[in-house]
Hints:
Rossmann fold, Alpha-Beta Plaits, 2 domains, 6-stranded mixed sheet, 4-stranded antiparallel sheet, ABC transporter, ABC_transporter-like_CS, ATP hydrolysis activity, ATP binding
Amino acid sequence: MIEIENLTKRYGAFTAVDDISFxxxxxxxxGFLGPNGAGKSTAMRMMCGLTPATSGSARILGRPYxxxxxxxxxxxxxxxxxxxxxxxxxxxxxxxxxxxxxxxRGQVDATLERVGLTSRExxxxxxxxxxxxxxxxxxxxxxxxxxxxxxxxxxxxxxDPGGIHWMRGLLRDYARDGGTVLLSSHLLSEVEIIADDLxxxxxxxxxxxxxxxxLLSAAGVVVDATDRAAxxxxxxxxxxxxxxxxxxxxxxxxxxxxxxxxALRHGLVLTSxxxxxxxxxxxFLTLTSDDAREVAA
Length: 297
Ligand SMILES: Nc1ncnc2c1ncn2[C@@H]1O[C@H](COP(=O)(O)OP(=O)(O)OP(=O)(O)O)[C@@H](O)[C@H]1O
């Protein structure tokens, strides 16, 4: 469990993290989402005791990180996958990590297998690794002590779609065994695949949080029918907020069941009905557009 309460970081007059509160629960993968510069890394650094908070608190397994006995054993952290020593082999990096957490060298081979690095890849120097391989190695270093909590900054960065699905499987299994995962990303498409719960942050402030399903249904549905004009008329009559999409379908601010019932009442034949595919992305962009630092800049 990670409990964040009113956590704030100010650099002079600039507030990088502004009074954020949320909980990442055991058995769940929590995605921490926000555009570049939103404050994700700063918040994660505060959670791990690397940056002192201006105010508020971050507790992991009930205590501040620094107050945990042997914290690296309980909390696996990957804040910067490219920070590994370029001249060492993957196996050396993982062996050092295992020694540091007191996990024993026996864990190294099992962890390499867990993160999908072959023994041949493990003998190569990290300087020759692709970004995706570094992410796998960084995840391995975080996992090698078998911690109960994982804090991962942009772990999917550099992974191809297959790699992202692989990571989903690994983190889901970890969470199913009772682990707590908090991972950040600036790409909703990544986290939409991997996370169960979402915390959206923009300009240092939390702009939305909830389960993925809640946030997806809040984003509305996309519907299509054999008779598009009749569908549009029915939706207009119902008073539901709606927007025609360029492909001819209709985005409606409602739950799928509401739109299904509406179609039934009007005798409409629906050809598709579902959560708006990129809905979360649209919501993410809308929610953060006012807050995005690029826009502010
Ligand atoms: N030591 C510091 N001094 C001053 N400003 C800082 C410092 N560290 C971070 N910031 C600022 O705080 C803001 C949040 O940065 P942070 O790295 O936490 O964002 P982020 O959400 O992780 O972004 P990204 O996705 O680009 O990594 C940025 O505007 C950054 O410039």
